[in-house]
Amino acid sequence: MKKLLLSVSLFAGTMMALSACGGVGTVEPVDDRPVIHFDAASIISSARDHQIKMLTLSSVPTDVVAISGAVKELQGMQTDNDIYSTELEELRHEDSSADEFKNLVVEYLEAENAYINQTIEALYGGGTSRPSRFSMESLYSRANAQISDFRYEPK
Question: CA-CA distance, 134 to 115, in Å (whole number)?
């Protein structure tokens, strides 16, 4: 009986010592990606929504499109982009690659706003040609491809 009591005491004492030292704790993975202080995934998702709306608008003949409604929708997209740009311009990051990525996102937002301005002009001008989407789409692709290279932590 003494041996059983001694064994149980030693086992309990060892377990308490191990748990107190953190010897039985969990291991947290280390994420060494550079930190960004803005939600790039939300901005890029919003940009994708904008692109889908603009693509839909550009595929409809202008004689069918209600121009005032289309312009109002486009101006709403510009307002979203302006809000994002203002917030991003004020952010500073510790890592230079995070600042470069932020600048890429801002550059995309500016390209999208320029495209929207050209689209509005084309709608009011009654022209059948649309501005080129190439620059905007290539910036979007670059920004979207780099999102996973960064870790989002709000300030």
Answer: 10
pLDDT in tens, 5-17: 556 566 666 666 6
The tokens for 105 are 């996102």
Determine contact, residues 2/117, Cβ cutoff 8 Å. Answer: no
What is the residue whose two structure tokens read 């905007």?
Answer: 136
Phi, psi of 152 (to 5 degrees): -90, 125
The angle at the Cα of 141, spanning 30 to 35, to the nearest 5 degrees, equals 25
What value does the CA radius of gyration of the chain take, rounded to a whole number of Å? Answer: 27
- On whether the CB atoms of residues 34 and 150 are closer than 8 A, the answer is yes
CA distances from 3 to 9, 12, 19, 98 (A): 10, 14, 24, 62
Query: What DSSP assignment string belongs to 40-71?
Result: HHHHHHHHHHHHHHHHHHHHS-TTTS-HHHHH
Task: List pLDDT tens digits, range 78-109.
Answer: 999 999 999 999 899 999 999 999 999 999 99
Pinpoint the alpha helices (H) of 62-95: 67-90
